[in-house]
Amino acid sequence: MGTTAIILVNWNGWKDTIECLESFGWPVPGAHFFILDNHSTDDSVLQLEAWLSRRSPGFVTCTPDQLDGHDGLDHQATLVLNPVNQGFAGGNNVILRYLLRSDSYRYAWLLNNDTIVAKDSLAQLLEYLRTHETCAFAGSVLLDYGRPGLIQCCSVRYYKYLGVSKLWLKNKEWKEIAEQRPPLPDPSRCFQMGASLLVDIAKLGRIGLMDETYFMYSEEADWQIRAQKLGLCNGMAWKSVIYHKGTVSTAGRKHLFFYHYNRSAIILTRKNFGRIAALTATISLTGVTILRSKFQLKESLYGLKGIFSGWQAA
C-alpha cells in the first residue's frame, strides 16, 4: 500500500512537537515523519535535532529544495527547514509537493504539532480510507487535551451566510457518544479539521494542494469543498482518537486569532459561495467579533482588519 507520510508543522513550538512525537512510540512501521520547521525564531531546530538524534538515528535535516535528494525510506524522520513562515497551508504544501513527485507514499497524515495520538489512531484512519473508495480525506475524533473525557470536535459545519464554523458535538462526553455513534452531519455541508487529516495522495493529484491564500484557518475547509466538486467526499473515522490542545499558535495573542479567523472566513465564503454570502458573513462576523472579544478594542480592531483583508485577498 506504500508508506504513510506523517507531516507536522512546527513554529516556535518544539515542546508540543516533541510531546506529539513521543506519543507515537518509536519506530512506527510503515510511516515516515516529515517535521517542517516554519522558520522558528526560538531554538526549535536545535531542540528537535537533539531529540531526533536520540530517537531516530540517521534522521536527515534538509531544506525544501533538497527533499528530492532524500527518499525518506532508509530512516524514520526528515526535519525540513523552511526559510520562511508560510503558515499551515504553505508549510504542509512544501511536503505535499514532494509527495506528489514521489512514488513511495500512498497517504499523507496532516497532524497538528499540539496533539497527542492514541495507539491505533493512524491504523484506524488508514482503514477508513481503504474501505471508502470515494473519500479523499479522513478525520479523527478530537478530544480535549486538558479534559480528555470531553469531545472537542467530530467534524465541522460551516455556515456560509454567517461566516462561522460550528464544532459538532463539542463538549459532549466522549464515553456516551462513543456508545451511541450518532449519524454524522451531511458530509456535503461539513468538513474534517486539519488537526488530524489523512489524505489519499492519489486523489490529491486531482484536487490539488491547499490554497496558500489562507495563512491560518479554513484552508482545510476550502480543500474539502474543492474535493466535493469532483465527487470526492470526506469522512470521520470514529475509532481514530486524537487529543488536541488547540489555539497554541495564537496563545497570548488573541488579536491574531480574530484577524486570521475572520480573514480566512471571508476568503472561504467569497471563493466558494459568492459575494452575497460574503456580504452577509461580513455583517455577521462584525457583530460576532465584538461580542466574542468582549468589547476589547485591540481584539475587535484586529477582527475588523481581518475582514477587510479577506475582501482584499485574491
Give structural notes.
By secondary structure, this protein is an alpha/beta fold. It has two domains: 247 residues, Spore Coat Polysaccharide Biosynthesis Protein SpsA, Chain A (Alpha-Beta Complex); 61 residues, no CATH class. Helices cover 40% and strands 23% of the residues. The protein contains ten helices and 13 strands. The strands form two sheets. Strands 1, 2, 3, 4, 5, 6, 7, 8, 12 and 13 form a ten-stranded mixed beta sheet that branches. Helix 1 runs parallel beside helix 2 and helix 9 runs antiparallel to helix 10. The longest helix has 20 residues. The protein is globular.
Short summary:
This protein has 10 helices and 13 strands. With 314 residues, the chain is α/β, with parallel strands linked by helices. It has 2 domains: 247 residues, Spore Coat Polysaccharide Biosynthesis Protein SpsA, Chain A (Alpha-Beta Complex), CATH 3.90.550; 61 residues, no CATH class.
